[in-house]
Amino acid sequence: MGKSDFLSPKAIANRIKSKGLQKLRWYCQMCQKQCRDENGFKCHCMSESHQRQLLLASENPQQFMDYFSGEFRNDFLELLRRRYGTKRVHNNIVYNEYISHREHIHMNATQWETLTDFTKWLGREGLCKVDETPKGWYIQYIDRDPETIRRQQEQERKKKQDLDDEEKTAKFIEQQVRRGLEGKELEMPVYTERNRENEKKVTFNLNKGPSTSVAASSKTNVLGQNARKMVKGAVKRKAAHSSGEPQEKKKKSALDEIMELEEEKKRTSRRDYWLQPEIIVKIVTKKLGEKYHNKKAIVQEVIDKYAAIVRVIDSGHKLKLDQIHLETVIPAPGKKVMVLNGGYIGNEGILESINEKRFSVTITIDSGPFKGRRVKDILYEDVSKLA
């Protein structure tokens, strides 16, 4: 009987059966052949191609087992890293998601007999944190990527710097309080017994006539004296100002100095992300191949502060890249740039000069409230060319 037609019911049924996972005991890892029943697996084991594969494996069986074990470990860890990150998850959940891919490496071809053995091995090798619970084994991926470690160290350094700034501010306030208390002795209250013999009786005169007039006249005299003193003081200050006499410099209060420190801190503050739309950047990663390496692109959209969609200038292709795979572009003097970090972040400016020894540039702010201000020694990574 000839082969069934492609659109025949039997051919369609066979294709439907071949989709998804089949029984593991009828799978041959050496030939990467999945059989649907015991008879098919028996026929495959008696085939000539299977016998050739067994002869190749018998020459160096350890090499094939190491290869399959390495592929299984790498694919499993890659899925764990991309899908769950550093979250704590049950090992069986990850394994079920891993074997859902039809072309995966089966565990019966590796050096581990069970998933529990593989989980314990991950813990011994330091690749994951593993712990056993009544519900089973849980694993947690340990990210040892150099870029991730560098980013964590940068965040810790920034937190430490913020704590140091708070300690400096608290110490400065303490010094100001101590300076204000210098030369002033705190007078402690003295308590004495009450002596009623020397007290005089207080009498009230309710006669409205003379008492009211006396009180009103005394109040008027006091107000008049105060008004005259205020007028004299104003006249003296005006005369001193008009004659050009130097006035006493007003001493800054502790609050003013603290506010100045806060403004300086904001001006010099830095962020660990710098991407901005409409700037030109250079692709420095080699993972995309030589086709995109060292190519210039325009940032079209910033995603979650640390990633961006860029358009390659030469080819027009759009890529989604992390900021660690990009770097800023310094144009020729006279071109427009954007400040990406520091106190003048977000402002556009004109590049005046480049200091190659200090890896910095000098720009003139061209927008915002600081327009016209000339800023020196801005680092290369803090400015980039505008599109």
From TrEMBL:
GO cellular component terms listed in the entry, alphabetical order: cytoplasm; nucleus
One GO term (biological process): DNA recombination
Statement: the UniProt record of this protein carries the keyword RNA-binding: yes
Sorted UniProt keywords: Coiled coil, Cytoplasm, DNA damage, DNA recombination, DNA repair, DNA replication, DNA-binding, Metal-binding, Methylation, mRNA processing, Nucleus, RNA-binding, Stress response, Zinc, Zinc-finger
Subcellular localization: Cytoplasm; Nucleus
DNA/RNA-binding protein Kin17 WH-like domain location: 52-178
Transmembrane segments: none
Region (Disordered) residue spans: 150-169
InterPro entries linked: C2H2-Znf_KIN17 (IPR056767), DNA/RNA-bd_Kin17_WH-like_dom (IPR019447), KIN17-like (IPR037321), KIN17_WH-like_sf (IPR038254), KN17_SH3 (IPR041330), KOW_KIN17 (IPR041995), Rib_uL2_dom2 (IPR014722), Znf_C2H2_sf (IPR036236)
GO molecular function annotations of the record: double-stranded DNA binding; RNA binding; zinc ion binding
Chain's role: Involved in DNA replication and the cellular response to DNA damage. May participate in DNA replication factories and create a bridge between DNA replication and repair mediated by high molecular weight complexes. May play a role in illegitimate recombination and regulation of gene expression. May participate in mRNA processing. Binds, in vitro, to double-stranded DNA. Also shown to bind preferentially to curved DNA in vitro and in vivo. Binds via its C-terminal domain to RNA in vitro.
Record's subunit section: Associated with DNA polymerase alpha, RFC1 and cyclin A, in multiprotein DNA replication complexes. Also associates with replication origins at the G1/S phase boundary and throughout the S phase in vivo.
Family, per entry: Belongs to the KIN17 family.
Protein name as it appears in the record: DNA/RNA-binding protein KIN17
Gene (UniProt): Kin_0
